[in-house]
Amino acid sequence: MKKHYLPAPTGHAFTRRKLILLGIGASLLPSGLAAADTCRGLMQATPRQTAGPFYPNWSQADRDVDLTRVAGRSESASGELIQVSGRVLTPDNKPVEGVLIEIWQANAQGRYAHEADSNPAPIDQNFQGWGQMTTDANGAYQFKTIIPGPYPVSRSWSRPPHIHFTLQKPGFSTLTTQMYFAGHPLNDVDALLLQHGAEERDQLIVAFDDRGVPNGSRPVRSGVFNIVLDA
Ligand SMILES: [Fe+2]
Fold it and tell me: pLDDT digit string (tens) for 50-76?
């Protein structure tokens, strides 16, 4: 199995146990920093979150923005189809072009196609576990994917559905974070989300439209996740 060609973001090598410890032990960001930014009329940088234990460590020929289809396979991924789009911006609201965005996530059953994932849920061979793209001149990006399933970390903790993101561009500090789905009940009890105050949690939780754009029998729901990068 080939190594992923991208360098893993900081903190990728977490085991489930370390993830649990992080959830219990991490501290909040200093609140004064956010307040200072607000006073200067700047947007708060998107909060950082761990890459978790399942950063892609395998290569794949198909690494495009449509994670619902794998090149050479006729079936598409199971699950609820979504389009995640947004813009990457500086704190003073300028678009950032040329940011390499990488996303990775569990399939609809809550299983990563990663050798370290011990979840017995089945791997979906029609789901492209990660994808990447580079932002355009407007800082815009978009991916088509499915809503990932929740998955167990321990007997008492299941992670809410989430999509992992890393953003890399020379001159900016690499951002690793996670995007969540508004209204999911596990959001309210997730140890990683609760590391952040309500305002920061809101930056990571995206509301998707209810009905979606018709697409045969499988409508595609859309959500916007704008991301603010620190220099
Ligand atoms: Fe995860």
Answer: 999 999 988 888 999 999 999 999 999
